[in-house]
DNA sequence: GGCGATTTGTACGTATGTATT
DNA sequence: GAATACATACGTACAAATCGC
């Protein structure tokens, strides 16, 4: 762990515990540099991350104001997975694997980062239950060239991301997400007990590894009355 | 304009024009530093912005790969306004002001960053038409203490953000956004010709200025079949 | 309003570590 | 193993914004 990462995590922890209260200023960069025994640049790097994630707002000549967004924000706004989400929210949840088989690349993925027609993918369908009701149906398409052994059902029921990152040592890095409303398909209707003329919310993501290779496409179908997405956003000017 | 801002904008432009093709590497940091006549740190600062916005992906020991996300992504994912959105998309659009009056602070805003009961707000309701159909209803609550003169109707029909930033010299900095589905209210039903049991998508935002003062609350009601949200997201580890 | 003191922002140069080819 | 390229870290200097006197 780098110094700036440790310092960033440390300050974040102190904000969450109220040691640095919301609405107040952090100590100055020079004071923090002295306190941690590092250079000012290292403090600035640590603070940059806190600024990006909504923990602080910096203002030239004044200081770093503590905000209170990150503590409420849904991790879904990042790339964080369902499993991490439910852990952080303490809901009663269950996952059922509805399908887990190898298929040729679906048409809408052919051409994406060199995906060829017929290239093998793992097609995984899972239902997510909260308090006894199915509220999400996940469709995952995973590139076999990256995970030759597929995904064991036992893993699919827990967290595929943890498996990829810790067991397979894959670095999941970024994604392009789209949120749209669609009419419920057959699986949605059956699993979530809704009609064919009712809408669900789809969150579609293209997921990439650290070296920018395409790895996974996911389509999450959310029951419309249970869907919520929250994010902290900064205005980009240039 | 700072050096790193100029360089960031310059490289971005060259990516968009295909001078740096998607999937290829940018020149090395040292080469770029020589080319622009700046230090390597300045190049890295410029590249950091391009990485945050989805233009490039950096990899240690290898280089900076050009991505193709930013060119497609909806500006709505930042704080960019409706007017900027329609300009960038070239749709046939129109805005109608349905309401523009001063009201006491609504209950759900009292307590937010020191908002007191009875504190005056401007309540603005606008309908957005595309190709002759109303597809969005915007409800804006603007803090009168920040904009004492309110918003002229002529401005409200174009872009309030441009007015705030250029005329009033306000620095809009960040927002907390929430996306949920709700049943259409009376105004939604009337303006978008939909029934009381149909859903709309609400994008609710708390908007803040550079000094972290709360400035505006907006609730955007989108016709469900016209709604789309897209964003580029990086995985945050710690 | 002006003038310092403080604080953050930018820029540079150097050194060292680490990943990739 | 060598060369290349990115990542971190430090120290310095100056610019720009804020605040209190």
TrEMBL record, chains A, B:
One Pfam short name: UTRA
Domain HTH gntR-type: 1-69
GO biological processes: negative regulation of DNA-templated transcription
PROSITE patterns: HTH_GNTR
Superkingdom as given in the UniProt entry: Bacteria
InterPro entries the UniProt entry points to: Bact_HTH_transcr_reg, Chorismate_lyase_/UTRA_dom_sf, TreR, Tscrpt_reg_HTH_GntR, UTRA, WH-like_DNA-bd_sf, WH_DNA-bd_sf
GO terms of molecular function: DNA binding; DNA-binding transcription factor activity
Keyword vocabulary terms for this entry: DNA-binding, Transcription, Transcription regulation
The protein's name: Trehalose operon repressor
Gene: treR
């Amino acid at each position: 762990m780098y110094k700036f990462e440790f310092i960033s995590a440390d300050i974040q922890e102190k904000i969450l515990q109220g040691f640095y209260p919301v609405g107040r200023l952090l100590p100055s960069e020079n004071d923090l540099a002295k306190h941690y025994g590092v250079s000012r640049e290292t403090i600035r790097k640590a603070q940059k991350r806190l600024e990006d994630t909504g923990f602080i707002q910096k203002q030239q000549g004044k200081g770093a104001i503590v905000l209170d967004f990150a503590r409420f924000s849904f991790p879904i706004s990042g790339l964080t997975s369902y499993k991490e989400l439910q852990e952080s929210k303490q809901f009663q949840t269950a996952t059922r694997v509805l399908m887990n088989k190898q298929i040729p690349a679906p048409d809408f993925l052919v051409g994406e980062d060199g995906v060829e027609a017929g290239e093998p993918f793992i097609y995984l369908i899972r239902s997510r239950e909260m308090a006894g009701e199915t509220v999400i149906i996940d469709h995952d398409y995973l590139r076999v060239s990256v995970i030759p052994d597929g995904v064991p059902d036992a893993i699919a029921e827990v967290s595929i991301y943890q498996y990829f990152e810790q067991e397979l040592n894959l670095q999941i890095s970024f994604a392009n997400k789209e949120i749209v409303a669609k009419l419920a398909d057959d699986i949605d209707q059956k699993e979530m007990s809704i009609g064919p003329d009712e809408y669900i919310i789809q969150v579609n993501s293209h997921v990439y590894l650290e070296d920018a290779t395409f790895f996974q496409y996911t389509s999450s179908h959310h029951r419309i009355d249970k869907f919520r997405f929250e994010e902290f956003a900064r205005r980009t000017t240039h």
